[in-house]
Amino acid sequence: MTPTVTVVGSHPVKHEPGFKDRLLERLRRRSAYAPAIREAVKDQLEAGIELISDGQVRGDMIEIFASYIPGLTAEDEPAVIGRVEPPRSSPLVLDYREAAETAGERAEVKAILTGPVTLAHSLRLETDLYPSTDHPSLLKDLSRALAAEARRLREEGAEVLQVDEPVLSSGAVEVGRVARYINRVLRAFRGGTRVLHVCGKVTDVYEELEEKIKADVLDHELAGHPENLEVVASGSKPIGVGVVRSDSERVEKVSEAVRVLERAREELGERVEFVDPDCGLRKLPRRVARRKLEVVRKARDRVFS
Predict the structure, then answer these.
(1) In which domain, by residue range, is 257 found?
(2) Number of domains in the chain
């Protein structure tokens, strides 16, 4: 089986919506970020990516959700200001729709959500409704809101959902204590492929990720954290393999990415489901991001030709 070339999500294209953009979004006509989404899709298609994203161009992985989920705010810095509730409508559906229409038949678009645990740990608490940002009551409400988003994106036509939980590799939480909240979001995406992306060093948590998280695919860094391969090889789930770094502007030679992927193929065999960058690329210059995506595609083609 030939693995699919994909992205982790974010892409360095910016757009400041004007009055007309925001009005059209308020009327549910189109995303206020449509111009940036089209540019992000164009870059991914030209690089040969087969499973693309909308570029997550609304902001960083926390601001995107804090800006519209009731009970959260993105002003000044992301914070909890009231009871967290599922949004009545989702701008992410408009973003997904714009990306899918731009891509047409040339590529599939995956939906991407920041997980409830990472979201909770990244918010400032400005209300007495929750005792702390890691309290089960807040995690429960965030997972309920994100599950509603997962259902909407599935209904819109998304076949793949990626949930990002980088906090799980930090040691700040125990996977077993928070798995139920992540699983609630994943279960809401019924009938589709559910991916959990955890960047960073996962050697201390991978076994629990396999055991506790109800994802179909686990996605991890192998370029920046080659030590992850040994523990990942001990598991059984399909894997997304990061083969270029997202924390460096140096564009890897194709041969470097090939070496990472060849080791992964040797250890994982047919478990290699996706080939992608280690993480999102939004902090890199656009030309660098494009070139790194090209390296990912060329490495996949060489190893799995």
Answers:
(1) 4-303
(2) 1
Distance (Å, rounded) from C-alpha 61 to C-alpha 117?
A: 12
Alpha-carbon distances, residue 18 vs 25, 34, 36, 227 (angstroms): 11, 12, 13, 46
Q: In 10 A of CB 41, how many CB atoms?
A: 27
Identity of the residue numbered 179: A
Q: How far apart are CA 195 and CA 102, in angstroms?
A: 23
Instruction: Let me know: does 12 contact 69? Beta carbons within 8 Å.
Output: no
pLDDT of residue 21: 86
Beta bridge partners, 194, equal 161
Give me the residues paired with residue 184 across strands. none
As a whole number of angstroms, the distance between CA 125 and CA 79 comes to 6
**Mean pLDDT split into 10-residue runs, the chain, 305 residues:** 96 91 88 96 98 96 96 95 96 97 97 98 96 96 98 98 97 95 98 97 97 98 97 97 98 98 97 98 97 98 95
CATH number of the domain enclosing 264: 3.20.20.210
